[in-house]
Amino acid sequence: MRVVLGPLLLLLGLCGSGARGQDGGLGEGGEIEQKQTTTDIWAEVKELRDMVVELKVELRTMAAIVKESQSQVDELRAELIFTKVHVELLQAENAVQTTELKSLESRLNSTESRTSELERENEEKPKVAFYTALTNSGHVGPRNTDITLKFSKVFTNIGNAYNPATGFFTAPVKGVYYLQFTMSNNNVGRMGVQMYMNKQRILYNDEYKEEAGLEYLTKSVILELMAGDEIHLVLPSSYSLYDDSNNHSTFSGSLLFPL
Ligand SMILES: *[C@@H]1O[C@H](CO)[C@@H](O)[C@H](O)[C@H]1NC(C)=O
After folding, report:
1. Could you read off the pLDDT of 119-177 as tens digits, one per residue?
2. At what angle do helices 2-23 and 28-124 cross, to 10 degrees?
3. What is the rounded CA–CA span in Å between residue 69 and residue 75?
4. For the CA atoms of 194, 197, 203, 206, what is the dihedral angle to 10 degrees?
5. Are 177 and 225 in contact (CB under 8 A)?
6. pTM, full prediction
7. Contact at 8 Å (CB) between 147 and 234?
8. Binding pocket residue ranges, ligand 1, CB within 6 Å
9. Strands 147-148 and 230-235: what pairing?
10. Taking the mean position of all CA atoms in its chain, how far away is CA 87?
């Protein structure tokens, strides 16, 4: 604007000096001079007009540039706002994920400790299982007294809870036990067996065989035993059983689970 004002003021100044000339009542020489001056002024005015046009064009260009810059600024501002929102969103997401991660971590920790607890429990859990057969030497009995049966062929004895020297099974821990026996006989007469828990008889199974030939008598029990409880089988007096290498008469058991 200052650039435009400068020449305009100059123009006004020149016009003022021309008027003064007229008032002064100049002679002929003065008229020529005045004409000359007028021509100069017009030339200058034309120059000024050109300058103004040029400035106008320049101004327009600058205005366009400013407008363009403004729109770029607006665009950048919009982008910035978008980016800010995006960053905030990501931060929120990150916070949520961090919380989730922490809860997963604590769950993993408790699972790990539970797993090692279970592993320890499993390792410490007593393992008890036995399977035996009576004898390879044929008939046991009949005698005139009860006989404690000693199953001498020990095939399985995990935990050594069965003692072939006494014929007793001793529960190593309090728990639920599965016990099973099968008795065989091929004589005519009485066959059967009694089961004792400690000193108490808990079972007396028998039958009378009228014909020769192998017969079997089998029974399963599930007992809740205290640690140290003993189980054994007794052949009543006048009864007989049979076994040989074919494993006819057997006694077996296992710990189902401790209590
Ligand atoms: C008797 O049982 C034992 C142990 O399971 C086995 O090795 C043996 O072969 C059995 N006898 C017969 C005749 O099957």
Report:
1. 998 888 899 999 999 999 999 989 999 999 999 999 999 999 999 999 999 999 999 99
2. 170
3. 10
4. -10
5. yes
6. 0.62
7. yes
8. 155, 245-247
9. antiparallel
10. 28
